[in-house]
Amino acid sequence: MAQRLRILDTYEHPQRALVGTIEATIKSVAEAEEELEREPDIELPRFHDDYSKRKWVDEQVTINKENVNERLAAMGAATAQVVQWTAVQEEYDDRVGTAIATIGSNLPDVGRNVRDLAQFMPDRRRDDLIEATRKLCGAFGDFLHAVNPEHEEKRTTVLAAAGRVGDFSQQVINTMDEPTHEQSYFHDHLVQKAKNVATSTAQLVLR
């Protein structure tokens, strides 16, 4: 009996730590959503001519796009790691908490960068970018709920939530830079392959 209690405590202590990390990251999701609603924090310099103004705007757009892309890549990798490391639900992998914390540390900055970037875009694309990012925040919220061990969600729910994170991440990227026909075809092909792999994985897990 004493040995069983020790085993349970060894598992439950890191699980509580993981739940705490998930809850903190959910707050980061809310922070990112709030950043999207705030006024942009952009300090405009004085321009001597139109060329200087266009050059400065181009630089700001490039910087914000690069920041968003880098953070999306980091969060995408972290999401994939969480999916991989939670495959065996009876075992705890302390790397899961680190990967989830990576999502939490990057998402608010995505909100800030998107908010600032949107100011340099035409109205329609600006609204589309904000909406795509808002949906991405929602997808991360759903994913965090799905991987919370206290909720005991089915593996298929976790895989579906991770898939939506990938879809909305790509939607944000596409809205920042409207893809060519070739890029769209290539992405659709990759998404379909990923869905096929996820379906096969889910079938194996359910057996």
UniProtKB/TrEMBL annotation:
Residues of the signal peptide: none
GO terms for cellular component: cytoplasm; focal adhesion; plasma membrane; ruffle
Organism: Teladorsagia circumcincta (Brown stomach worm)
SUPFAM superfamilies for the chain: A middle domain of Talin 1
InterPro entries, alphabetized: Talin_cent (IPR015224), Talin_cent_sf (IPR036476)
Name of protein: Talin, middle domain protein
One MF annotation (Gene Ontology) recorded for this entry: structural constituent of cytoskeleton
Record-annotated Talin central domain positions: 14-173
Stored PANTHER family: RHEA, ISOFORM B, TALIN
One Gene Ontology term from the biological process aspect of the record: cell-cell adhesion
